[in-house]
Amino acid sequence: MALTIRRAQRDDAALILDFIIKLATYEKLEDEVMATGEDIADSLFGADPKVFCEIAELDGKPVGFALWFYTFSTFQGRHGIWLEDIYVEPEARGNGIGKALLVDLARRCRDEGLGRLGWWVLDWNEPAIRFYKAQGAVMQDEWTVCRVSGAELEALAGEP
Ligand SMILES: CC(C)(COP(=O)(O)OP(=O)(O)OC[C@H]1O[C@@H](n2cnc3c(N)ncnc32)[C@H](O)[C@@H]1OP(=O)(O)O)[C@@H](O)C(=O)NCCC(=O)NCCS
Hints:
single chain; Aminopeptidase; 24% strand; binds coenzyme A
């Protein structure tokens, strides 16, 4: 079986949305997916995209993806990569595909002089946590994620 990692193209937008929904369903967060195929196509394949996607294929069949964008660390004074989503189809797991997607991003960090590769993982997602630790990831347990959205975001934006 030949594994390849390729950059996603505009006609992958529906496939990417399908992967996003499958990952969200695995994470029990499918009700939070508002993105449409058009949103994905515009954001990833419009003019001057700020978010990117790699597709993993086994013998030419898409079996997983990694969607990412650039971050910046003021401490390091360098850009990094934020891995927003990584997902491998259930029947394809355990064959080195997730690792190949992470290796691809680690190489990009090395080749572009980026300082960090980071991502969230839900605290109950123990298989993924074991997978990440096997790749050298160190859990940042002292940090808590903050988010302002919806009505609270509108209210904050409306403050004088
Ligand atoms: C997590 C995920 C991306 C890993 O991809 P994968 O293709 O199954 O993993 P790989 O086959 O590349 O595994 C690479 C290595 O991690 C190890 N590993 C993978 N899953 C593991 C697990 N559940 N427990 C322990 N080790 C694991 C493998 O043994 C392998 O080790 P090796 O390099 O020493 O052989 C995939 O299982 C997945 O999509 N899971 C559901 C969605 C998800 O949780 N996404 C992450 C959200 S934060």
